[in-house]
Amino acid sequence: MIPLLTSIFAITLRAGTSLVYATVGEIYTENSGILNLGVEGMMMMSAVTGFGAAYYSGSVWVGFLVAMLVGGLLGALHAFLSVTMRANQVVSGLSITLFGTGLASFLGQRLGPEANSFNLAGLTGPRLTAQPIAFVINIPVLGALFSQDILTYAAYFVVPLAWYYLYKTRNGLNLRAVGENPITAVAMGINVVKTRYLYTILGGILIGIGGAHLSLSYTPGWTENLTGGRGWIVIALVIFAMWNPARAVLGAILFGGINAIQFRLQAIGTTIPSSFLNMLPYLMTIIVLVVMTWWETLKKRIGAPAALGVPYMREDK
Amino acid sequence: MQIFFEKRKNVSRKAIVLVPVVSFLVALLLGAILLLITGVNPIVTYQAMAQGAFGTVYGFSETLVVAIPLMLTGLGVTIAFRMRFWNIGAEGQLVFGGIAGAGVALFLADTIPEFLLLPSIILAGMIAGALWAGIPAVLKAYLGVDETLTSLMLNYVAILFASYLYYGAWRDPLGFGFPGTARFVEEAWLPRILGRAHYGLFFGLIAAIILWIVFNRTRWGFELKIIGENQTAARYLGIKIARNIVLALLLSGALSGLAGVSHVAGIFRRLQTGLAAGYGYTAIIIAWLAQLNPIAVIFVSILMGGLFVGGDQVQMMMGLPSAVGLVLQGLILFPMLAGTLFTEYKIKIVRPDKTPRVESEAAS
């Protein structure tokens, strides 16, 4: 039983890593008042470009850098459209998803070497390997925490830091002020436009890491539809986490865990259809949303940044 | 010198026509650059796409096959967006409509009189789509729960439920492992007009005309518009906001459900994998490109359908990725979104000495 639990937990963490990075990124973006529904497209683009760059350079780290760059650029595009051009954020984000998935599929069939008829799919490139830590890996169940790759280890530090920055620093306070009430934030002397650009780009960079973790570690290589809707799960996770990076871990573990348990159940040959198991996270997100909204109106405690999705226009008051 | 944007009282008429046209041209240009970079001749590609999607009777009929669900979901989304209700659940509503229609076709074909079978199937699909859209509508209208996220989450539930049905409970035991149900009886097929293009086209055209009349000539259309523009004003006018949100969303979902059931009864003639092809997401883009005008939705849907089919054609003829079509669809949107600035705002250039002190005003 214990080895089984350990292995389920290890797969959970592996599956959850890309979700954690992308979710923390999206939490930062949303806290600045920008709703980014482009996560799926951004993850797809960073997965394909990250893999391509790693394949040609022979280094996973070049892959991750390129993926971060691509994620950041798409974040900047979303910021440009929704902040500067005041476009509707829902539509702008969806456009990035549509464009990103389309372009990723296109590039996946054009960027490859001629010998592989320009396909990236089916190639083996460098990958991030697990770096088990001696001794502690033998702890029952929790040992799974120490059989991961470097990015998963880094996530153990990124999440607390992200939480600390958001809730315990001046910059974090300013960020949340912009998301809650941009007009007041201006009065506090904060540059709303700059803040929103900054955190939408930062969010994109983290989403880029999440996307590249898929093609460079979790399921190494490029395949069509590699992300499999993970970008949308990230958006659900942000709500599930109530815009708090610390709680994002719980959500990522839950979603990752459902993935892991499913592998196991399929191996055992269970009668519970996996479709219903897969529905759970989405249904739970809806329930969390309903309860939260009800709780908010009851306690007047705001979980969501109040100005989330509302364009900031100093001209129309 | 500083540039300011002043919100227009009325949306600029000239910009409304100009922005989509310019956006399309810009998209072609950006796409051409992308194709050139990846070593493909853009002119030959575009020609092949246009030829493949519109140049032959077969190609055009295939374009219509895609345009029909896009049209119906696009119209559904338009209703919701008119009242600034961000229903991004058209995909799930489409799938649920398909599930319900298939349920009737598979299990009630013997009990329902022959001439009523197809109408019952279609009605079941519309009701199912409406109910699926009704969930986020009721949650929003009476509890204030954000509709973007609930409608989105429900897409996954519907898609997973459909896959459970065609992989599991409803799977055709004689289907050689193909993920799909048994084929419907012939009375349950939606008749085809041209190639595989079916009667769903008429549903789309009729729905567009009815919606145009509702939006522009009826009190209800006016109420929806007011709710979208200014909820406070709507309340003063005595408009029942919650009830209208639910009603509009039931109608919105019914159209998406109709898209799903028409596709199932007109194309697949069974419930099978491939129903959730992303039409419901493209619908959002279509509603936006059409500037929420139901008549424009028809033309934009056919154009977008053409991009899908044109992409498939260049894959077959030139060995290029069919995603070219998707890339172009995405590319139209960016200039289009940026162009909203010009339809909704007036650009004013102010000399330094007259610069209004906006910052301090905002602070007060």
Essential attributes:
A: 317 residues; mainly alpha; ABC transporter involved in vitamin B12 uptake, BtuC; 11 helices; B: 364 residues; two-stranded antiparallel sheet; globular
As for the number of domains of chain A, it is: 1
Q: Report low-confidence residues of chain B grouped into runs of 5 or more.
A: 354-364
Report the sheet-strand fraction of chain B.
under 5%
Order of helices and strands of chain A: HHHHHHHHHHH
Q: Average pLDDT across residues of chain A?
A: 87
N/C terminus separation of chain B: 24 Å
CATH class of chain A: Mainly Alpha
How far is the first residue's CA from the last residue's CA of chain A?
A: 62 Å
Number of strands of chain A: 0
Please outline the major beta sheet of chain B: 2 strands, antiparallel
Oligomer: heterodimer
* Spans where pLDDT lies below 50 across 5 or more residues of chain A: none
Strand order of the largest sheet of chain B: 1-4
Explained architecture:
The complex is a heterodimer of chains A (317) and B (364). With 317 residues, chain A is mainly alpha-helical. Chain A has eleven helices and no strands. In chain A, helix 1 (2-31) crosses helix 9 (230-240). Chain A starts with a helix and ends in an 18-residue tail after the last helix. Chain B has 364 residues and is mostly helical. Chain B has a domain at 72-292. Chain B contains 14 helices and four strands. Chain B has helices at residues 13-37, 42-55, 57-82, 90-107, 114-143, 147-169, 200-217, 219-229, 231-236, 241-268, 279-289, 294-318, 323-344, 358-363, and strands at 2-7, 192-194, 197-198, 345-350. In chain B, the strands form two sheets. A two-stranded antiparallel ribbon of chain B has the order 1-4. Chain B has a two-stranded antiparallel sheet with strand order 2-3. Chain B is globular. Chain B starts with a strand and ends with a helix. At the A-B interface, helix 3, helix 4, helix 7, helix 9 and helix 11 of A face strand 1, helix 6, helix 11, helix 13 and helix 14 of B.
